[in-house]
Structures are given as C-alpha cells and as structure tokens.
Here is the input.
Amino acid sequence: MNAALSIDGLEVVFDRFRALKGVSLEVKSGESFGLVGESGSGKSTLLRAIAGLAPAASGTIAVNGKSLGARRDKAFYREVQMVFQDPYGSLHPRQTVDRLLQEPLAIHGFADGEKRIQRALDEVGLGTGFRFRYSHQLSGGQRQRVAIARALILEPSILLLDEPTSALDASVQAEVLNLLEEIRRRRKLTFLMVSHDLAIITHMCERLMVMQNGEAVENLTAAQLVGHRATKDYTRNLLRASDGFVRTA
Amino acid sequence: MSGDRNKQRSMSTLLDVDDLRVTFPTRTGLIEAVRGVSFSLGRERLGIVGESGSGKSQTGRAIMGLTPPQAEVTAGKLAFDGIDLLAASPRDRRSLRGKRIAMILQDPKYSLDPVMSIGRQIVETLRTHEKVGKAEARDRALAMLEAVQIRDPTRVFGLHPHEVSGGMGQRAMIAMMLIAGPEMMIADEPTSALDVTVQLDVLNILDKLVSERGMGLIFISHDLRLVSSFCDRVIVMYAGKVVEQIKASELRDAQHPYTRGLLNCMPRIGFERHPLPVLDRKPEWAA
Amino acid sequence: MSAEAIQSRRDWLLSERPASRMQARLGRTYVAWRRFSANRLAFLGLLIIIALLVVAALADVLAPYSPTVGDLKGSRLLAPSAAHWFGTDDLGRDILSRVIFGSRWTLYVVILVAIIAAPIGLLVGTVAGYAGGWVDAILMRITDIFLAFPKLILALAFVAALGPGIENAVLAIAITSWPPYARIARAETLTVRNSDYIKAVQLMGASPFRIVLRHIMPLCISSLIIRVTLDMAGIILTAAGLGFLGLGAQPPLPEWGAMIASGRRFVLDQWWVAGAPGFAILIVSLGFNLLGDGLRDALDPRSGDQ
Here is the structure.
C-alpha cells in the first residue's frame, strides 16, 4: 500500500458548528495533492485536523498506513510538518533564525545540529548571513523560507502547506513556489497544499479536491481542470472567476 | 472610439497629480515612500499596481489627505477639479472627503463603526453632507443598498457590521461611500480580502456605478491581472515611482521589464511553466 | 576612542546581518538601550536607582556617624546643621546616617519581594493561560481571592499571623503582590497561545512544559519587568507602612517607614526627623516609577520590534 495519507469520513466540530462533514481523501506517496475552496470551505480545517491542531470528532486519519490516535507522538512530527499561511505570524518574534531552527533539533535530540541548520538554510536559498537575524529583520519571502527550512529540518516525508504564498507579493510567490517544487523533487516529498487560487493549485499539484461548506464537491486531476472537464457547477464557477473580471455589456 | 474617449477625458480632468512626494521621518533618516508620481484622472477607471512597498497605497492616501501627520506631502500640483488640495484648509478637505471624493479600504471590518447599524451609518454619512430629512435619508440609504445588489435591504439596514459576511460588508461600505454621490473614488485593494466569486460580484457593482454615474475611479491593487481586466488604464509603480503607464488593453505589449516580469511570474491555468519565471530586480528600476 | 572606532562599533551592533548569536543579542540590547536613553526622565530614574545602589553599597564609608548609637546627652533632636546635615532624632542619632543605612533595608525589601513575587506570578499566569480549562479556573480563582482584599490589609493580616519583623514583612508583601503579575502573564499568554508560532512549536512535538518555559515565558517577561518596576514604589510604601505601624522593621533598625513612625510625635516642632526619611522614600519611589515608564517604552513588544 503506497498511500502516504488516507483520510476517511473525517468530521470536525467546533462548538456545534460542523466545520468538516465527513471528508474522505487519499494522497499517494510522492504525490502533490491540492485542496481548493473559498473561505469557510473547511480546507484549512482539514489540514489542521491532520496536524492534530483541530480535534477530529469522528473518522480516521492514517499516515503511511499507520492509523493516528487522538494524540500525536514524536514520530508523527518527524513524518509530517506544516508551513503556515502568514509568514509574519508563524515565526517567534523574540527568536533568531538560528534559535528557531535549533528548537526542533533539540526536541528530537539531534546531535549534528550545526550541520543541519547550515544545510537547511542553504537548501531554502538563505545564506549564513541570515542565521542570526530576528524575524523582524526579514522580508515576507525570507520569513517564509525560514518557515520552510524549519519544516524540513526534521526531514519529514509529508509537508502540509496552508496557503504558503497568499500573503506574499506575486514575484516572491513565484520564487517560493519554485523552491517548494524543487524541494519536493529533490526529497521526494508528498505535498498536501491548500489554496484559494486555482492557478496555483493546478501549477503545483497533480490531483485536487474542490471543497465547499465542509464537504468535498469533487475530485479531479489538474489536467481535467485545465481541460475544463469539471463536472460540478461550483468548480466551473471557480474556474471562470479565476480568469479575472469580464465586463458584461 | 478610443480617440473620442481620450478627448472626453482630457476635457474633464478630475484629478491632476504632478510630482507627488510623500516622505516619512524615521529614526535612521527620511524615507521617501512616494517619489515624484505624476498622472491625471478623468472619468475613467485607472488602476495603480505595485507590490508591497511600492508606494501605491501612500499615493492614494496622499490624494485623500489621510497621510499620517508625521509624514510630509509635497507636489508640483495636486488638484481635484481645479481645487488645490495641498493649499486647502483641513476643514475644506474634510468636506471634500465623503462628499466629492470617497475611499474604500481593503477590510470593511476596520472601516465600519462596529457599534452602529449599517443603515444608520449610511444615513449619518448622507446627513453630514446634505441637508435632508430623516425619512428621505432612510429611503435613499435603502435605495443605495439595493444599488449595491443587497437582496434584502431593509433587513441589512438594521444589521451591525459583525453580523454580515465580508462580501456583504464591502457592499455596505461601497453604499456608504457612494451615498453622497462622489465624483471620484479611490479603492485601495477593495476585493483582496474576498473570495474570488464574491470579488467579481463587487467589481461588477463598482463597474456599473462608475459607468452609470460617470465617476472617476482609482483602483489600487497588487493584482496586475485583475486590474488589467477591470481598468481602462494602468499605472505600474515600483519603489515609489511610476515605471510605466499603459492602456489595459495593451498590457501584453508592456515595455518595462518590471511590468513584464510581474505579468509573467504568476501561474496561469493552462500554461505549464516549471519553474516559474522570476523577477530579476535591477537596481536602475528604482533609480 | 576615536570617532571612527565608535561609529564602527555602532555599525557592528546595529548590523542587519549579525554573524553570531552574541552579536544578535547585543544588537537587540543596544537598540532597547538607545530607545530607553532617549527618554530623559527615564534616564533620571535610572540615575536615582544607581545612586541608591551606590549609597547602599558604600553606607559604611558614606555615613558620618553610627546609625544605631546616638549621643543622648548632647545631641537630641538637633536641627539640620553642618555637623548633622539632616539633624538628629530623639535618641540623638544622626538622621543622615540612618537614611543612608536605611537604603540597604529598602533595597533588601524591594529585591526580595521582586524575586519571590514575580516568578510566582509568571508561573501561575502562564500555566493558567496556556493550560486553560479547569487548571486555569482553579489558579485564577485563587488569584481572585488574593485580589479581593486590599494589599495592605492582607499584608497586615499575614504579618500579624507571622509576627512582626522585616523578614515577615517581606514575605507578607510578596504573598500579596504576585496576583497582579499572574493576571498580566495570563493575559499575555492568552494573546500568544493561539498564534501560529506557538502552533509551529507544537508541531515540532514540543511538550507543554517546554512551550510555556521556552516560548511563552520570554514573551511575558518584558511586560512583567515593567510592571514590577512600577510596583516598586508601592512595595516601598507598603514596607514603610508596615514599619510605620510597628509591624515591619523593629527598632533600632534604620528602616525609613519605622523612622517616620518614630518621628511623627514631633513632626510639628522637629519636622526633619520624619521629613528626611519621607523625602528619601519619595525620591526612590519616583526613581522607580520613572524607570518603569522608560522601560515600558523601551521593552514594550507592541511598540514594534524595531
């Protein structure tokens, strides 16, 4: 069995509000899978439920064939890591890049920290010049690179990406997307990527799931979407909207 | 037709900006956020596009007179309908704001008063700018809410800002801004916080209002593609300067490498490019 | 040092690309210091506190007479003069010397209270804020009980139970002054506990203990330091109040509050007996307040991490 991630009938409930209503999903090992939807569709909640940041009310999540309980153990975090949407909120304001990258190594008891930090910074295209900066001394794109380095330093096999570029300028977005693609190729990672932007998802992912109001609308391959072979009206609407404004005479 | 349109534009120039500069004092010295921006606006849709730090928002704020007090605004000319905005008294500028010039910001949550119902805010705005009776103000507010395609205006009239969705809030905001019948509107990222489908609804409303009422619109955004599909003309800003002014329809033939790079670096559905082309920023662009 | 050397040192401190952990930390400290020293009043406050430290350290050298042994025969209740700058008290002791030695007791009280109360408050507040649920409920209700009584009354009750004396006064003040710190630390914790950077550390597999200790506490410390500094004046006054009521320092200890208490009997005729220690309390309280205000501007995490 080569499913990196399989989710079955996942429900998440916040104060009686059903944020996820029984979503099932399978991501193959080495695949890049996209989740698309508008705000409130539950796409980010799904990601957070996998990471253990949102409580699952029912349903199962399995990583590399191993079913997860309510609590995640340390081994899980070495398999699955996450990159957050807001690069300004995901780095501790009082820690240097060095300290941020050291933390996961200290928690998991790695001895060769020095080398790993160096390598992680090189891998995301930040030289040593950035190592002792505080996050406020970095631009948005640089922050997101640090966040990616932090996620990679434990050498996970699955990366959860929660709108990793939506807070960045278009030119910086291109750089970060290229970086993510390159890392995936080099490390043979599995991606589960959330975005509201169909263009980004079709660029980055092979398959995708469209979500609305906590439910899956449909599963597609990127090629099907590009070829306008979506079967649901909702997906077609999204696709049309992403073309930009069309003046109705 | 485009010749006609140009003639009409030049006949009714609403806003004339020449060599606009906005300077912020900081601990380490002066920072010029806007460095000599010049353009003019007729009754048209003008887009200002740039990335963060390009000075696009500060340009809009300087025109509105909403620059933070510690910053300094200078210009060779900054005139709205012949009125010199820099020489106008704070009181005159206040009465221009809202009455003849309106502004929409990105997040309606921060621009609407959270403790006052939407309807009352619109009525109050109207009554500060025009002498109208309560009943008439209410009728006009309801009509305005209808004009921004709110289906049940009487219900929304009584709601507070936190009770409506982002798209609805932005529509209410537009209604409030348009109630006094401004001649010019500055919209600073009016749809960036909204979902794509809602975004298009809001743009549709703006579009209709602009063409029906003959308003001048300055549309400030980071999204070059969206702006070019919506506006007649686009100004591209980089590091506080205008690097290119171009007709939206001619954007494909943009000359400046920054504009071209910005257009190219976004992923597009149906155009596979791996890796995406990235911008190679040249220092001389900022010079 | 030449001007260039100073300039290059400053550049090193303000470098955008620090080359080592040390340089990053020093640079950050330097920026805070620049912000602090730009505030003249805060700087005055710092000078007052430094002066207090110096006086306390060098009390033996600075004091012209013994603080406890007086000349009952020849020098009772003398007015300020060249020989006795602040005059003498009813037991013929030189008041200047007593005020100088009293600075030691003031520092002793202030430092001990800060060392006991601030960590308790920090721990209770961060744990309550991060854990939430019933842990939060229990810890905060205990805090509320302490907050329900006026500080001085509660301290009085504790001292009455423990017995008078300066150590017990310190303990009583410490026990009554941690709850506000717990409240501050909890409020601060609540604002950061749901932030992405704490979520990110959770995703590293960090234990709750580690998160509180290494990621949340450092964020609470600056507002706590500010609050403690601003409270110093109140602590001095409470200690003086207890001393005044005879429940703090016992004679013949030259504690400022106790000195005012013994001087109050002749405050109309011999004003300097109560006046000198009163003035000392005023100056030191003012110093701590000014310092606290300056620290608030220099350390406040909200005022931009520039």
